[in-house]
Amino acid sequence: MTTPPSAFPDVEKLVVDVLKADPALAGAVIAVQAPAGFDGTQSAVLVNRRGGAWIGDLHVDMPLVEFEVYGPTKEAAHVLANGARRALLAMIGKRFGANVFHDVEEQDGPRWLPDYLYRGANRYLCVLRLSLTVF
After folding, report:
1. Is the pTM of this model over 0.70?
2. pLDDT of 100-135, one tens digit each?
3. Residue 59: left (phi > 0), alpha (psi -120 to 50), or beta?
4. CA 68, 7, 11 angle in degrees (round to 5)?
5. Calpha distance 40→97 (Å, rounded)
6. How far is CA 37 from CA 20, 22, 51, in A?
7. Which of 48, 87, 125, 130 has the most Cβ atoms closer than 10 angstroms to its Cβ?
8. Using one digit for the tens of pLDDT, what is the confidence trace for 39-94?
9. How far apart, in whole angstroms, are the C-alpha atoms of residue 69 and residue 4?
């Protein structure tokens, strides 16, 4: 019997919490949505679930998670993107709250992508696939 899709964990909140717990990312906005007044030039990592699959019999969620990473310069955004990737990749084999990170695999990135919403933005995108057991 499979578990219904409503059993998905809130992966965006989980990843935000993981990144916020990393001291190397202190000072950056880590969120699901850009804060009020955001113009793309602040240090920020915006976390979004971009799909994935739920394996009900195993209670495993395999989401694709995208980071939109911003910084005051292109170099700063790149450094922050690598820091966010490192923090999530370091979770392989670890438990965080009610979830175990069995695997974290990079699917794309970091890649430079201009942001047409925020004209002065320095933005990199990364996509990682997680494999999480939900307890």
Report:
1. yes
2. 999 999 999 899 998 999 989 999 999 999 999 876
3. left
4. 15
5. 31
6. 21, 25, 28
7. 130
8. 999 999 999 999 888 777 777 889 999 999 999 999 999 999 999 999 999 999 99
9. 32
